[in-house]
Amino acid sequence: MFYWVMKRIFLGPILKLLFRPWAKGLDNVPAEGAAILASNHLSFSDSIFLPLMVHRPVIFLAKSEYFTGTGLKGRLTALFFRLSNQLPMDRSGGAASELSLQAGKDVLGGGGLLGIYPEGTRSPDARLYRGKVGVARLALQTRVPVIPVAMIGTEKVQPIGKRLPNIRRIGVIFGQPLDFSRYYGMEDDRLIQRAITDEIMYELMRLSGQEYVDDYAAVVKQQLAGKGPEPRPAPEPPEEPEPDAGAGTGKV
């Protein structure tokens, strides 16, 4: 109920008025049935703008740190994420990560839309980073299509560390569903998991226009924090793609 009220009555209309988000390819999101929405991750606000553009509820796997914050801000953040259809995703690996993926499988098993960020964390510099194979495992174990989603310009609306957003237009591009039925029965093969994940990341690179970096974003963040070797330098940010005449209609 909270999700519907915020999206349809309170927060959604205000966000659309201020940020004038445009969308392409909404017809690629099925009207019913399970699917994975695999998105690039540029900003905290991705988890707000992506489901805002989809008519069906989207349940996200979000990093578990959002649910364990302390103090008033931490508790409010955790409450918001729980009330807005977000599930904690433990990225430490092993049994904890497997339990998180099971929560995603339950969503898909119930015919829902599951949102996931294959990069595992926000990009530190607006480039696209190597995807983690959890998305491939989910796709193979549940046998559902993967829809690549490119967020456009959200890193400029809310850069990392900035509390108040900049008012500017953003976009969301929904790509063609990716069918991995040719790999069914091979969900435990690490090479297959990596091949599927790389295919998803290629589509995200193509849709978003981002430069691809074959490193994990979490590792690069450690390097930027002085906990590893110097990361590869980021180029000048590319110009944002402009919406065409069909932008906002749901047509590609």
Task: Provide a quick synopsis of the model.
With 252 residues, the protein is of the alpha/beta class.
Structure overview:
By secondary structure, this protein is of the alpha/beta class. It is built from 8 helices and 9 strands. It has helices spanning 2-19, 46-53, 71-83, 94-109, 134-142, 154-157, 190-208, 217-224, and strands spanning 22-24, 35-39, 58-63, 86-89, 113-116, 128-129, 146-152, 171-174, 212-213. The strands form 2 sheets. It has a 7-stranded mixed β-sheet with strand order 1-8-7-2-5-3-4, with helices on both faces. The protein has a two-stranded parallel sheet with strand order 6-9. α4 (94-109) packs across α5 and α5 (134-142) packs across α7 (190-208). The longest helix is centred in the C-terminal third of the chain and has 19 residues, at 190-208. The protein is globular. 37% of the residues are buried. Mean pLDDT is 86; it is low at 245-252.
Please give the largest β-sheet. 7 strands, mixed
- Count of discrete alpha- or pi-helical segments spanning 4 or more residues: 8
Content of β-strand: 5-15%
Beginning-to-end CA distance, first to last residue: 31 Å
Using DSSP, what is the number of strands?
A: 9
Shape: globular
Q: Enumerate the strands of the largest sheet in spatial order, edge to edge or round the barrel.
A: 1-8-7-2-5-3-4
Oligomer: single chain
Question: Spans with pLDDT under 50 lasting ≥5 residues?
Answer: 245-252
- One letter per element, helices H and strands E, the order comes to HEEHEHEHEEHEHEHEH
Topology record:
Elements (H helix, E strand, L loop, with lengths): L1 H18 L2 E3 L10 E5 L6 H8 L4 E6 L7 H13 L2 E4 L4 H16 L3 E4 L11 E2 L4 H9 L3 E7 L1 H4 L13 E4 L15 H19 L3 E2 L3 H8 L28
Helix pairs in contact: 4-5, 5-7
